[in-house]
Amino acid sequence: MIEVKVIxxxxxxxxxxxxxxxxxxxxxxxxxxxxxxxxxxxxxxDDIHFLIYDNNKLIAYANLIEESLFMxxxxxxxxxxxxxCVDEKGKEKGYLLMSKIxxxxxxxxxxxxLFCKSMLVPFYxxxxxxxxxxxYSENICWMSFNAxxxxxxxxxxRRKLF
Length: 162
Known about the structure:
By secondary structure, the protein is α+β, with helices and mostly antiparallel strands. It has a domain at 2-111: 3-Layer(aba) Sandwich (Aminopeptidase), CATH 3.40.630.30. The protein contains 4 helices and 7 strands; from the N terminus they run βααβββαβαββ. Strands 1-2-3-4-5-7-6 form a 7-stranded mixed beta sheet. The protein starts with a strand and ends in a 17-residue tail after the last strand.
């Protein structure tokens, strides 16, 4: 049975943190301990963990962080999408995760922003995210979702990538 959990960082259990670190370690080159430390150092109390379980096993994870962008010196609050990962690639789990995240952004009337490697753009394109700064750098593309009425090509962001 599929279960979606949306949990703020200040309400996350240690068991869920362990599950997150395990799933992030599957395809990454970082150890469990470094994944745990990254969460401690980078996820703020009100940031959101987005978890999908199948029969109590974590199969997909991402986090949404509160951030702001600037356009013509006007601040725009967004949710930054990071750490999109699944326990197995090629099983449509990434599409399920993105569908749930997209629904969350729409239901909460929030703009989503992500940074990704250019090779991942087709995946996010298929999930209705729009390239907004495809030429930002040789390796990093900016993409947005649910940015109705905002000219995202004119935004600026000067903080660390998430």
